[in-house]
């Protein structure tokens, strides 16, 4: 940590800054007089609230954090890439893992037919929402436990492991009985009680990026889960809130190589939610694969125009087949792994 | 709702759009042939998922919602302004209500001294966090129930009603035993299980705007609480995520008159969290009052430089006194109420 | 255009709306009474300022534009894709066109060696800045006309056509003498005098997306150039301003298929400026190709660490060679063209 | 400047960083070994391109600028507040200066009647656009020189000095013949040739904040003008591009006290363009005054519903009168000046 003071700070102000640093066990100040600033380096392991304390001292202009606030999620402290294995899928391995299925679980026929179709096309994880976060209280909010049972039925039929969202700390136990991967939605990325709770399970957790989350906040959300003892974390870029309203969100494709550099955790992309329009899903999915994503989350529905949720962004079986062919072709020619120095 | 189709849509495509509309009980299409587009108006009460359904039909270019998706929170359906009364404070009345206190509850002395100081300066609600959402799992996360007890002690001493945050559906009951207003933090604005749960209590609820929430999403979060039967909702503008990092967030001051126009609910502002720097709190607080805010949420701490949380944005007692004097002066000269036609 | 009025608008207010519409030659209103709204459709060709006029009439809640405000740039009015040919490069054809070179022209040796290296690797257009927009007045602002002459020298040596930025209407003539493509920088996307001026030349123009430009504003900037009579326009996605500061800008990869759907103009991407970090350039470049971009703009420098401008985002010759190999492999397996229905 | 290196950087890498720093005349490195990082402070006056150079050296993780890149615009180098005087208006003095008038100059009657009305209400500067930046090439783009003559006529009648926009370096001379303040529009904030050109005049210049400009970029735009020798610069907050589309832009009210702290230049606000809706103009204008703005730019039109440009955000004479009464009342009770420590 670097404490920046004005050139005209008084000796007393500087002394107080030094005294405060030394009042924390294990910390030592090192002063350095520049042309326009006095800079005080802080030697030792910084506690997260120290920045706030120093910023308020008289004469201090700015406090700059030099180390990253996340450790368990950081590549610096864990240079080898991690992977998460569920069923036949290795998320974080050389091949992209495709997780596909409907936005919402609706009925047995829809789930089983979709599961079979996406498996036949090459998907190795089945997605489907039983508990749905909806912007309006009057929208369909999912089938709940009954939906979990239908997911399980589709799993029995196809062997595909299940990824499904959990929205509340109270539901973690029941969802974990059915799910192979627990999904934390974008709107819950900073629902810290929920992160704590899934951190105490032994199920892999996918943390979707919040609509307005910086890379650091996102990795700190992963850190919450890992600090609870659960190291099987997958990150998912699903688009951030921007000023353009033609697409629902703006997929930040550079997040994929950035996360690979900052963290050892696997990173996948969700082109369905980010674009919100089915005809944009394939080009954006291919972009994510080319940029090095470890997988994709794709909404597929037998009849998108009667889907109970997010129909406009769902692919038909036929469109999904075409996406899979192209994704496979690109993943075969991309470097394995895409190197991020 | 308006369904926009291309000029060159086929008669069959148009017929299918009409058939779909009519398949919903109570809905009727009305077609209108423009120069560059065919426009189909939908007569009747629209369900929230109809837009998704129509967007996917062949020939449809765009679907435009004309009515607002929120009803209970809407001024259109409830023209008279609402107010929420706790203790001596009427939030939504002619005078701005100042809710002040420390970011985190730390100890009895801090709470009681702060409560007395803010009361003496004119605050009529005491704020203080017992459950704290923190970006890093390693930051101080609040005293929990012990903190609620200290808040209660300060309430007994001063008579000030309490506003405090609740972060998890599981904690709603216990927090509601102590709090006079339940605060939903910005990061939980779309934590729908939590909104449902506070909607079932009889305590007033303050819904802070999410970091990336549109006005409509924010009002729909209020609608969640109200749909549960709890109509005592207060909105709080606390800054949105923007590209400028000098301030923590960007306070959207226009949100105050916009919300007064779109909704009958009272609206307050939080200049402490939005700016993140104590020397910006007073000017931004005064701006909010001048724009017509029904109140303010202000962080005050006896010694900001040793605060366990958010010290840099806390005011000393002396600075808070000065803010109160200026806020009072401005509220006396502003029109009562600031008219939003 | 759709004029939305409240259900309780008076007959006089509705009559005035109808009268105003009819006062414009060729326009006719069509009224339609919904459950919560009265909607007035406007038949005829809308002038761009009519929306403003209607919004102010008493009883009007909202005015919704149904048609697009751009025509010449629109795919709707020009269904076949356009392409721009310079030298051996066909921008808008099946193969992505790589435009590479240094951010700034610095000296003959740098320009000629870079031109030879990028040509050998497969680039077919040479980029290089002679007039440089710099955030600080104290940064190196380019060599000006001398830089144009060095570009020309490199063109003579290699046969590569030149793309270079023009910043001022006054410089259009001189830059057009040297350049094969005139580049309008992101900061000048709404410099309308400059757009007018390049619209009057017969040189192809590349319009970079403004830092905060919507798709519509960007296509309207292209429309300015085309309205001047110059139809050889190329669009370039170069990243938008977002809240994340780790990358310089946020490349909006979905813009590529969106623009292909809304417009017939070719669209390329600039991964160098958007990421600002050389190790992100290749993955983001490959993403753009996979998403269907017609080309790339890549900064290459013999010695990035002594470049006078934007060194951190420049590739060495070796890194550029590797990018080209991978881009070629992906473009060979992507569908030709990537279909955007 | 601070160069941050990894703990495991080699001695050679550190030596190269030191060598590079020393290769710049007047610069000296000072090394400091932390627990997780090696930090190298750079002593001396930093050139703006040095950051780029250092970022690329092997072993360097990050380069942090400690000093501000602007000097002439900085309060640090110029502690006393500046003011700009035109006619009876002192922008930067204790009283807010109201600059009012129509968006576009349309005809003599409109200009003269508006000038008289705004003068009677207390405005001391007349605004009006002769050269108009419009998003669409098909919108009304202003009367040009004829418009300047009409502005002059209104000035002769009322004695009010004129503020009007200049869009192109070529027009600076002619506009400067008529204008008392040259306005640089938001879309031209980084049109550096234009900034250079107005920097060479002796007319006061108002620099509007770009739609996506950080505080630093905005102050650097002012620095461009001042570096040309023209120190009479006024800054104008006019709203930034955000995700909410209900208002045209998001007025960043905190910018007012931030700029007062970072710079000595006067700062005014434009609530008309930022909100885009006349009924939001007054509350946002009052907010700006309460936050300490040195003035306001307000659009006023005799008949907003037939205005040729931006009618929806224009006030009638009557509404402007009411705004002036309230603004005066608030400016009388606000501290003079609002202190920004």
Distance between the termini of chain A: 25 Å
**CATH architectural grouping of the largest domain in chain A:** Alpha-Beta Barrel
Regarding quaternary structure, what we see is homotetramer
**Widest beta sheet: strand line-up of chain A:** 13-12-11-10-9-8-7-14
Highlighted features:
homotetramer, 341 residues, alpha/beta, Alpha-Beta Plaits, TIM Barrel, 2 domains, eight-stranded parallel beta sheet, four-stranded antiparallel beta sheet, elongated
Would you write up a description of this structure?
The structure is a homotetramer of 341-residue chains. By secondary structure, chain A is α/β, with parallel strands linked by helices. The first copy, chain A, has 2 domains: 2-64, 2-Layer Sandwich (Alpha-Beta Plaits), CATH 3.30.70; 84-334, Alpha-Beta Barrel (TIM Barrel). In chain A, 34% of the residues lie in helices and 18% in strands. An 8-stranded parallel beta sheet of chain A has the order 13-12-11-10-9-8-7-14. In chain A, strand 12 (233-237), helix 8 (255-262) and strand 13 form a beta-alpha-beta unit. Chains A and B meet through helix 2, helix 6 and helix 7 of A and helix 2, helix 6 and helix 7 of B.
